[in-house]
UniProtKB/TrEMBL annotation:
The keyword Repeat does not apply. InterPro entries: PCMD, Put_CMD_sf. The keyword Signal applies. This is PCMD domain-containing protein. Transmembrane segments: none annotated. The lineage of its organism: Bacteria, Pseudomonadati, Bacteroidota, Bacteroidia, Bacteroidales. Residues 135-406 form the Putative carbohydrate metabolism domain. Residues 1-16 form the signal peptide. Keywords: Signal.
Length: 413
């Protein structure tokens, strides 16, 4: 009887598949921005497109009051304002123009903040603007803003990938009960500790109703960033990723390949026009109790440890970013020019200050013309479990960091 039912199921599936081939294809339900184009002579770097935002870095000489970005979007979808239409990013708040993409079937739409950044990257990092992600409202996104409130850079983390395992809402519910939705962000691998009195407030003027962390009417500055190695639960174990180390880095996280090629999903680097000399900051660390391998097996006697480093490298037609695979290659890469790696990372209940000189790769020198043209990048990378990208570490390992700074030799005019 069971065989007959199985044969019937197979026949039914085949018939359904044949019927779907004959019928008209259903309208597309996706509404994504896939690519964005602007003249190459004004771009500082390739535009970064995530699931819910677009960041475009342009040269200081570009006229951003009359930019006409051209978008490729999901088949059949529409975009407003129209692709290729001239927009005034100079006078838009925080240099952001909001684009709405609507699916072909008309059932779904997504609003992308498209931000133009036209300034050099910061060298001191205070994480002085933080918000909940617009897509899920669950995890924190950290940015650096200047004295005028303009975004200088946005930090990346593996938080977008952690959404998929669904663990943060579960942990928040167990801790906070019915009010858990206001605390989900606390249970992501990358979060922050804020001064007492910090609240989450909605910007009603933004189309995406952005929720910012605020204190005394201003964007809250965290006391420190907290990175925690967390379990990924049933979902993570089922795909061979039992833990998620807390991490934060300069660059972006490519969610589309996160489960297939996790190390390649972390793209390190932001354009940098200076000669880096040293990387400094402060940390404190407590390792989790039980170290496990990539299969979730306990490794007796193994102690977790964190990692802090900064990369300085040259870009070319084949290398737009250095990704997390550099760890697998023992920090060897043909484009790497210099690296600052924290020596002797260790547990400490007290804050530990560090100041690491950049060690230049043998035979490597800086081409100042390329530096002036924005062909070099710098990438700070921090993780609560040094081997977290191999899914080895201890759940509960906690790394706090603050006062990060890149000292530089000089600016190239």
């Amino acid at each position: 009887m069971k065989q007959i039912l199985n044969l019937f199921a197979i026949a039914f599936a085949a018939t359904a598949a044949l019927t779907s081939c004959i019928q008209d294809e259903a309208p597309n339900a996706e509404c994504d921005i896939l690519t964005v184009e602007l003249p190459e002579n004004i771009l500082e770097a390739t535009p970064v497109i995530t699931n819910n935002a677009v960041t475009i870095r342009v040269r200081s000489t570009a006229d951003i009051s009359r930019l006409a970005p051209a978008f490729t979007i999901t088949d059949g979808a529409t975009i407003t304002p129209e692709s290729g239409s001239v927009q005034d990013f100079a006078n838009a708040e925080n240099n952001i123009v909001y684009y709405t993409v609507k699916s072909e079937d008309g059932q779904w739409e997504k609003t992308y903040p498209v931000q133009v950044i036209q300034r050099n990257i910061a060298s001191e990092y205070t994480f002085n603007s933080s918000e909940l992600d617009a897509s899920t409202g669950q995890y924190t996104i950290f940015s650096e803003i200047d004295e005028n409130g303009n975004t200088v850079m946005t930090w990346a983390s593996g938080n977008p990938g952690y959404v998929m395992c669904g663990m943060a809402p579960n942990m928040a519910s167990q801790t906070y009960g019915e009010s858990y939705r206001d605390h989900i962000y606390e249970f992501f691998p990358t979060a922050a500790v804020y001064p007492e009195g910090t609240t989450i407030e909605t910007d009603e003027n933004s189309p995406s109703k952005t929720k910012y962390f605020m204190k005394d009417g201003k964007k809250a500055v965290p006391e420190y960033i907290r990175l925690v190695t967390r379990t990924t639960g049933f979902f993570g174990n089922s795909i061979g990723m039992p833990i998620a180390a807390g991490n934060i880095f300069q660059g972006y996280f490519q969610t589309t390949i996160a489960t297939q090629r996790p190390r390649e999903a972390t793209k390190f680097g932001e354009p940098y026009r200076y000669e880096p000399v040293s990387f400094s900051g402060s940390y404190r660390y407590k390792a989790g109790e039980i170290f496990t391998d990539e299969n979730g097996n306990t490794i007796q006697g193994k102690k977790d440890i964190f990692s802090i480093y900064a990369l300085f490298y040259e870009t070319d037609e084949n290398t737009e970013y250095i990704d997390g695979s550099i760890h697998e290659m023992n920090f060897s890469h043909p484009n790497l020019v210099a690296i600052a790696t924290l020596p002797n990372p260790h547990e400490s209940e007290e804050w530990v200050d560090f100041d690491i000189p950049f060690a230049y790769v043998s035979g490597k020198t800086i081409d100042y013309e390329k530096l002036n043209n924005g062909e070099y990048k710098i990438g700070i990378v921090i993780s609560s479990s040094a081997d977290g990208d191999f899914f080895r570490g201890a759940v509960g390992s906690t790394l706090d960091v603050k006062n990060l700074k890149i000292d530089r030799k000089k600016e190239i005019e």
